[in-house]
Design brief:
Length: 244
């Protein structure tokens, strides 16, 4: 393929723009905020599971405490009824029976209240655990939100730069021979780099140094000959910097 030396040289300008675009695309995919958001999101998911378990523990204790309160209320009601009957007087045997039942009810009430107190202490601990998990979730959500804000800000900057580079690429490509750009784009699509400067006997694409016949081939090629590397197949652009 033939192309004017100046057109070949301008391939380097086009490649510089495409390299910048590739770097921006890579940066978009590899933002540290993306990994941070993913990590914190998994952390929040684990914490949400902990929160559910902690909430269930509190709810179970609330249910048990409520049951004990009902039992205690029943004992109190029964004590009030028996005390009223005792205060009303009656046969000695009935009075003794009521006194015995009141003593039993007092013991029962004491046992229930002790058990309820133990549950209330356990509930206090369970609620502290629940509140701690909720606090950690809040902090994690805040960290994720901050990372998302940084991500969005950086993505906006990248998009702006990509738009600028894309707009600057079109005039460069349109001003070059169509067949040269077509070859360049084909190589770039396959390898990521379509053209590179040939300098000091070395291909700027694969960095391999040429010797003997290979180097003679490049030196002997006409100025308008599009020379490609035998190793990586990229276009080797010769300029005054090539040292030929």
């Amino acid at each position: 393929m033939k192309a004017a030396p100046e057109a070949q040289r301008r391939l380097l300008d086009l490649q510089a723009v495409d390299t910048a675009l590739n770097q921006l695309a890579h940066r978009r995919k590899s933002l540290p905020e993306l990994a941070e958001i993913d990590t914190v999101s998994r952390e929040i998911s684990v914490l949400e599971d902990e929160r559910v378990r902690a909430q269930v523990a509190v709810d179970d204790l609330d249910r048990d405490i409520s049951r004990f309160e009902k039992d205690i209320d029943q004992v109190r009601t029964r004590k009030q009824r028996d005390q009223a009957r005792l205060d009303a007087g009656g046969a000695l045997r009935e009075i003794e029976g009521l006194q015995h039942e009141l003593a039993t009810l007092n013991r029962r009430q004491s046992e229930l209240e002790d058990a309820e107190l133990e549950l209330m202490e356990r509930r206090e601990t369970a609620e502290q655990t629940l509140n701690e998990v909720k606090k950690r979730i809040t902090e994690a959500v805040e960290r994720r939100s901050a990372a998302e804000a940084r991500r969005d800000e950086t993505l906006a900057e990248i998009a702006k730069e990509q738009e600028f580079k894309t707009q600057s690429r079109a005039p460069l490509a349109n001003d070059l021979p169509a067949d040269l750009v077509q070859l360049y784009d084909k190589i770039r699509t396959e390898t990521g780099l379509g053209a590179a400067l040939f300098r000091s006997g070395r291909c700027g694409g694969c960095r391999i140094e040429l010797y003997g016949a290979d180097l003679a081939r490049v030196k002997g090629a006409a100025a308008d000959e599009v020379v490609r590397c035998e190793e990586c197949r990229r276009i080797m652009v010769r300029t005054a910097e090539s040292g030929l």
